[in-house]
Amino acid sequence: MTQNAPMLHDSSPKNKTALEYPLIVRWSEEDQAFIGSCPGIIGPCCHGQDRGHVLRQLVQIVNDWLADEEATESGVAPSWATEQETTA
């Protein structure tokens, strides 16, 4: 399952949320669990038996990561650029 929100073409990390980035929750036969990741932001970072629970974990992790980046004023890839990279 991939959840994408409308793309914003603002490269500023301020006020960005996880839903502006591609969120991927996929079933892993090897792990017998759902695995969550956000390409361009973080690789596989959460897992569980319930897809909805993994998606909620993933949203929280990405939101925390974005908040940390904003606090340190580091560059965050714009959501639209991240999405283009993953579809190329």
Structure overview:
- It is elongated, with a radius of gyration of 13 Å.
- Strand 2 and strand 3 form a beta hairpin.
- The chain is built from two helices and four strands; from the N terminus they run E-E-E-E-H-H.
- Residues 1-13 have low confidence and may be disordered.
- It has 88 residues and is α+β, with helices and mostly antiparallel strands.
- Strands 1-2-3-4 form a four-stranded antiparallel beta sheet, covered by helices on one side.
- Helices cover 35% and strands 24% of the residues.
- It has one domain (2-87).
Secondary structure blueprint with pairings:
Elements (H helix, E strand, L loop, with lengths): L1 E2 L19 E6 L4 E6 L3 E7 L2 H22 L6 H9 L1
The major sheet is characterized as: 4 strands, antiparallel
* Class of secondary structure makeup: alpha+beta
Spatial strand sequence of the major β-sheet: 1-2-3-4
- Provide the helix percentage: 25-40%
Distance between the termini: 19 Å
Q: How many strands appear in the DSSP assignment?
A: 4
What is the domain total for the residues?
Answer: 1
Low-pLDDT residue intervals, each spanning 5 or more residues: 1-13
Based on Cα principal axes, name the global outline: elongated
Question: Quick summary of this structure?
Answer:
The chain is α+β, with helices and mostly antiparallel strands and 88 residues long.
Which characteristics define this entry?
88 residues, alpha+beta, 4-stranded antiparallel beta sheet, 2 helices, 24% strand, disordered N terminus
